[in-house]
Specification:
Blueprint: H1 7-24, H2 29-47, H3 52-61, H4 64-67, H5 76-90, H6 95-107, H7 117-134, H8 140-149, E1 156-158, H9 161-178, H10 189-206, H11 211-216, H12 218-230, H13 232-247, H14 256-278, H15 280-283, H16 293-313, H17 319-337, E2 341-343, H18 346-378, H19 385-418
Antiparallel strand pairs: 1-2
Helix pairs in contact: 1-3, 2-3, 2-7, 3-6, 3-7, 5-6, 6-7, 7-8, 8-19, 9-10, 10-12, 10-17, 12-14, 13-14, 13-18, 16-17, 17-18, 18-19
């Protein structure tokens, strides 16, 4: 939609607003605040390729509800939109342009919500001005907006086909070497962590492969899934064991877990042997030709689109929805860390990592609660009522904290996508 707002009209609006501010005097808050917001709106309009005159007009009129209407608090936005609508009508501004301006003014105090481009423009310009004026007293979501608005828009690019092949082969060599482990005592936390990273890195590269080549890699993909699944029960029990310690229980309350973890690790070693025997050809095959430049770029663009869509559609109250978001994020996380992709701003990789870990922790808490119920029902864990309340309270508190953290991280990421 092409918005039309002439320089003459903007000048008239500025004169009318400044006249109101002159009446208040240069010692008033709004006298300087409106000017600060105008400057930021002009700058952000240029950066985001929005109509500069429209951005400036919104900035000049965003607080009319307070300046002219005398309304303070949340209601000043609605009043300001009404006053702006009357002004724009007198100035013969087109209905579509007027609607965009008044909608942005109406929305400008809804800092927790992400809306249309011009609403986001005024919210960010307002937040930047508040940051200068209020410093550390800024509300959380205005602080987030002011931080994000100061950096360049998010940019993720495909870097190197050769690097993708190098990563694939390097991580494959690591997996082949680790499959030779025969002593479960060597399956330390760091060893399992490295194993999982190697598998995820390969699977991330496979998201760039054409459908035709992916068929060829089908058996390898099955082998990687089987290896990953081998660690599942051992990892669950280890995470559960650590959580009980953090919850305040003594070792004697869950000492039996050590034996269960050792049994699961023994199963892993046996599983290694079976997988090596069954999929030996797949592990030693050559995969240098599985990636094609055009197909890799096409799949990268598709994956990036799907990641963006997952962010727009994610439901914070649905674990499966969060899980799907995490799966998309994992692929980008490992491709960026392995320099197959490049990312413009370090903060964006930090966001991907933080969100990836937060959703993982939330999932782990859910699994810990299930295990607690299961072991208590079988009598393997015997807790007094006070202890049971302490542990369940610990989990519920952790879940609440992670959900709040995820909500903020998703907001930050959505803001980066909008910008």
């Amino acid at each position: 939609m092409d918005l039309i707002l002439t320089d003459v009209t903007v000048t008239r609006i500025r004169e009318d607003v400044y006249n109101l501010l002159d009446i208040q005097g240069d010692t008033s808050y709004d006298y300087h605040h409106v000017r600060h917001v105008e400057l930021y709106a002009k700058k952000l309009s240029k950066q985001r390729h929005l109509d500069i005159n429209v951005g400036i007009a919104i900035a000049l009129m965003h607080d009319l509800g307070r300046i002219k209407g005398g309304i303070y608090g949340k209601e000043h936005a609605a009043m300001g939109a009404q006053i702006a609508k009357k002004w724009l009508k007198k100035l013969d501004v087109a209905a579509e342009t007027s609607c965009v301006i008044t909608t942005a003014i109406m929305n400008h105090n809804q800092k927790k919500n992400i809306q249309d481009s011009y609403s986001e423009l005024i919210k960010d310009a307002d937040s930047l001005a508040h940051k200068d004026e209020l410093q550390d007293e800024l509300p959380r979501y205005e602080r987030i907006r002011s931080e994000i608005a100061r950096i360049s828009p998010m940019r993720i690019d495909f870097a190197s086909l050769e690097q993708a092949i190098f990563v694939f082969n390097k991580q494959m060599s690591e997996i082949i070497m680790m499959l030779d482990i025969e002593d479960e005592g060597l399956l330390t936390g760091s060893c399992v962590h490295e194993f999982r990273i190697a598998i995820r890195s390969i699977r991330a590269v496979l998201t760039l492969v054409s459908d035709e080549e992916l068929v060829r890699c089908n058996k390898l993909e099955k082998a990687l899934k089987k290896i990953f699944k081998l660690f599942e029960d051992s990892r669950k029990l280890t995470v559960f064991q650590k959580s009980l310690k953090r919850a305040g229980l003594s070792k004697s309350d869950y000492s039996f877990l050590k034996v269960l973890i050792e049994r699961e690790n023994a199963k892993i070693i046996l599983g290694f042997r079976n997988i090596k025997n069954k999929y030996e050809a797949q592990f030693h095959d050559s995969y240098d030709s599985i990636l094609n430049e055009d197909e890799a770029h096409l799949n990268f663009e598709r994956n990036l689109f799907n990641y963006n869509q997952a962010f727009q559609m994610v439901r914070l109250d649905e674990m499966e929805s969060l899980h799907q978001l995490r799966i998309h994020g994992k692929n980008f996380k490992y491709l960026i860390e392995n320099e197959v992709l490049t990312i413009g701003e370090p903060i964006d990789l930090e966001l991907i990592n933080e969100l990836h870990m937060a959703i993982g922790r939330l999932h782990d808490i859910g699994e810990n609660m299930k295990l607690l119920v299961d072991f208590m029902s079988t009598g393997a864990i015997k807790l007094k009522d006070k202890q049971a309340l302490m542990v369940t309270g610990f989990y519920k508190s952790g879940m609440s904290e992670e959900l709040q953290n995820i909500r903020r991280l998703v907001f930050r990421f959505r803001k980066r996508l909008v910008v």
